[in-house]
Amino acid sequence: MSSLTHAPARAGQVSPAPPRRRRKLRGDEIGKILFVLPAGIAMALLFGYPVVKNLTMSLQDYSLQTFFTGEAPWVGLANYVDVVTDPIFGQAMLNTGLFTAGSILFQFVIGLALALFFKQHFPLSATLRGLLLLPWLLPLIVSSATWRAILEQDSGILNRFLGVFGVEPIGWLVSPSIALIAVIGVNIWIGIPFNTTLLYSGVQAIPDELYEAGSLDGATHWKAFRYITWPSLRPVVSVVLILGVVYTLKVLDIILGLTGGGPANATQTLATQSYQRSFVDFEFGHGAALSNILIVISMVFAVVYLRRGRHAADE
Amino acid sequence: MKRHMVMAAGGMSAALVLAACSGGGDGTDADTGEVSSLSVLDYYNNDPDNSLIQAGLDRCAEELGVTLERETVPGGDLIQTVLQQASSQTLPDVLMLDNPDVQQIAETGALVPLDENGVSTEGFAQGVIDASTFDGHVYGLQPVANTLALFYNTDILADEGVEPPTTWDELREAAAALTEGDQYGISFSAINTYEGSWQFLPPMWTNGGDETELTSPEVAEALQLWVDLVESGSASESVINWSQGDAKDQFMAGRAAMMVNGPWNIPSMNEMPDVNWDVVQFPVNDPSQTPVAPLGGEAWTVPVTGDEASQAVAVDFVECLNTPEQQLDWAVSRYTIPTRTDLAEDFLAERPEMAAFAEQVANARSRTGQLGPEWPDAATVIYEAIQLALTGQASADEAFAQASAR
């Protein structure tokens, strides 16, 4: 979409070029297409097919039977109506929003703080940065199992630790009012390396000369950050935030591993609901409808990302 | 589409060749009408079960003169694997299914009715046959069964001078008396999966509750028992996040004096000889009641592969897995209960510690006996209600109404 609105405007500036260019390029076109073709086929198979399949599935009564009989009657938008009117849907939407916003906010702020911290050179800085990647490298199933043990109410190490200070045991994963916070906390822990790594590379790319010049003008510490680091970092920041949102919206493993969407649906998100409908209840039409809703939400952010990327390339 | 053609053709005499072609992928060789191998799919992927099952399968394979191609998948992946195989027409010749799933799969038309192929179900416990029956036909045979009962730590109960409870009041009192420090009186699973629903069935059914009417006072009363145990602190609040494996870990670690659990844990419990335990049937609410527990275990079925020759051998194979000798062998080695009721005596002579379970199985009900393929919906309402009540979001009286509204 953005390319359509964009291209003519730019072409207009170059004025008479387009018609001539089109004619001239016709000879090369076959060669170009041949270069693009393998990628196009791969995209169609790996992305196009599942997306189309998911779309058609969401319009069908796709059940256990379908796998055996191959019959999946068309039901129009009934699946969408069903999942949206389900009382859990509102809670799942709210939880998805809270989970995403909470995760992104803290992942980003902590990630940025760490990136700036590691910009300063000090002994073992590289080693520490390497260690910081650990949460990212661990399989999610291991992370969630480990955190589940840590957050366990009676014998978990966190409550034991807090107990030293006289804090009563907290039901991290068993209290409906706390479970979502605990799950977000674990997801923040998992997401920090991603944020730190990208932001650190952004920080590294800022020329030292800027800071030297800035310090002559009296821009140090907070002012240096405000007027040098932040503006220089902005393209990286938008990439980190948008990718972070898209990744976080579809987080599934961590929630399933920690709470399974419980207690009493307190940590149910669109992603866990979609999983539940498809692979526990075997109502694949409902599951597909939910995941399509999720895809549309993600796409809003993806489009913003693509537009940003285009601007950056244009600049 | 292709499947229809194959199945329709299966009835015709000329179809065997066609069917054999389509069945080529599942490891059968029906070209000559001679079946030399059977493919088997099950979820006994961990030892000791894995090798004990293998021994039984091998015995029957030898008896029928076929070789086996056995595939095992983790329990949670079985149905997904079956669905994938169904859509690619590569279902195995012999398929093991968890008994509450048999009717759902039978409903799809994927299974061969065993009773129409001369398999007799005489002598089997009725609950077992109910679980494998759909629309009047038997689709699976279950050699051994398991169920739930109340395990207790004999040392802890003796130290505290507490007798194993036989009624709910005694259960509440015992659990409270056994709760101190790091140790809870009882552990069980109230997790938000079918596992949590399954663990709730002993109190629910024993009290006369029924899955066809979940908003009845009998069901609410049973839920109140769970609520009381948690609210009084006799059970951890974490039970809403515990699987049965977690409940067992708590018991084995000495952090619970009693637990609701099944005999499949016994082999691993025997590896920790420091913990002395015994088992009683799940207590009753009113002394006039009989403990009723859910029937667990797996049935062996024969999928419709279109290859009639292989299907016939597979039916014989399933029958072989259910002979009295094979039932006893698996029951004794795997700490499960033979489903032929007349084997109880022989079995208990070898495994006296299984007495409570054997009694419990005699009165056990199958989960799908009443609702059939609709059971998963009821099971979902049950665990949702448990979660609502145990987290204090609804009273035990209102929880089921609230959960069924969803």
UniProtKB/TrEMBL annotation, chain A:
GO terms for biological process: transmembrane transport. This is Sugar ABC transporter permease. InterPro entries: MetI-like, MetI-like_sf. Belongs to the binding-protein-dependent transport system permease family. Gene3D superfamilies: MetI-like. It comes from the Bacteria. PANTHER family: BLR7065 PROTEIN, SPERMIDINE_PUTRESCINE TRANSPORT SYSTEM PERMEASE PROTEIN. The chain crosses the membrane at residues 30-52, 97-118, 130-150, 170-190, 236-258, 284-306. Residues 1-22 are annotated as: Disordered. The keyword Iron does not apply. It is found in: Cell membrane. It comes from Ruania alkalisoli. Keywords: Cell membrane, Membrane, Transmembrane, Transmembrane helix, Transport. Residues 93-305 form the ABC transmembrane type-1 domain. It is a multi-pass membrane protein. GO terms for cellular component: plasma membrane.
